[in-house]
């Protein structure tokens, strides 16, 4: 039987402000895909639902406590060949945040972008696919 490595489930958040801009996180230079802009989030841990993991990751990464019920699924992107790494599936959720008081608590930087600006940012492959899905006409 083919030996398929266990896949990794990652959750990410497309957070929109009141002006139609979206929050992106620039990965620290020393990490996988360092220097590229992603939707903030991280890996789902054993025993967590994707939504639980999203709330935990956004608190850890941005210092922002979001309401699970205020997040809506947008879609997902998958990577079949991992170059020695397990296959990855990223599930994207969206929510709205009008306040301030967040930071890149685990390194890197964060900033807000219009869809046009976000499309032009250098991103890892799955975030390219997720951004295309998110900003496609009629999705949001
Ligand atoms: N956002 C994003 N992550 C990707 C892509 N491809 C890919 O292998 N990954 C990996 C990088 C990370 O290992 C993981 C995202 O989880 P994370 O945000 O918690 O990553 P991390 O660097 O803090 O964790 P780690 O890998 O150091 O354990 O998914 C992609 O296209 N976009």
TrEMBL record:
InterPro entries, per the entry: MutT-like (IPR047127), Nudix_hydrolase (IPR020476), NUDIX_hydrolase-like_dom_sf (IPR015797), NUDIX_hydrolase_CS (IPR020084), NUDIX_hydrolase_dom (IPR000086)
> Do the record's keywords include Protein biosynthesis?
no
Going by the UniProt record, its keywords in alphabetical order are:
DNA damage, DNA repair, DNA replication, Hydrolase, Magnesium, Metal-binding, Mutator protein
The scientific name of the source species is Qipengyuania citrea
Q: What is the lineage of its organism?
A: Bacteria, Pseudomonadati, Pseudomonadota, Alphaproteobacteria, Sphingomonadales
Q: Which domain of life is it from?
A: Bacteria
Q: Name one Pfam family in it.
A: NUDIX
> What's this protein's name?
8-oxo-dGTP diphosphatase
GO MF terms here are: 8-oxo-7,8-dihydrodeoxyguanosine triphosphate pyrophosphatase activity
Q: Which cofactor does it need?
A: Mg(2+)
Nudix hydrolase domain segment(s): 6-134
- Reaction(s) catalysed (UniProt annotation): 8-oxo-GTP + H2O = 8-oxo-GMP + diphosphate + H(+); 8-oxo-dGTP + H2O = 8-oxo-dGMP + diphosphate + H(+)
The EC number(s) attached to this protein equal: 3.6.1.55
Q: Which family does it belong to?
A: Belongs to the Nudix hydrolase family.
């Amino acid at each position: 039987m083919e030996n398929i490595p266990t896949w990794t489930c990652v959750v990410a958040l497309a957070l929109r402000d009141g002006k139609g801009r979206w929050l992106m996180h620039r990965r620290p230079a020393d990490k996988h895909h360092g220097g590229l802009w992603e939707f903030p989030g991280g890996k789902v841990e054993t025993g967590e639902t994707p939504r639980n993991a999203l709330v935990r990751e956004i608190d850890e990464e941005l210092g922002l406590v979001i309401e699970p019920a205020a997040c809506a699924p947008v879609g997902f992107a998958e990577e079949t060949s991992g170059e020695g790494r397990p296959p990855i599936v990223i599930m994207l959720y969206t929510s709205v945040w009008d306040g301030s008081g967040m930071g890149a608590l685990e390194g890197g930087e964060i900033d807000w972008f219009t869809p046009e600006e976000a499309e032009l940012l250098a991103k890892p492959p799955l975030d390219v696919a997720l951004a295309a899905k998110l900003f496609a006409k009629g999705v949001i």
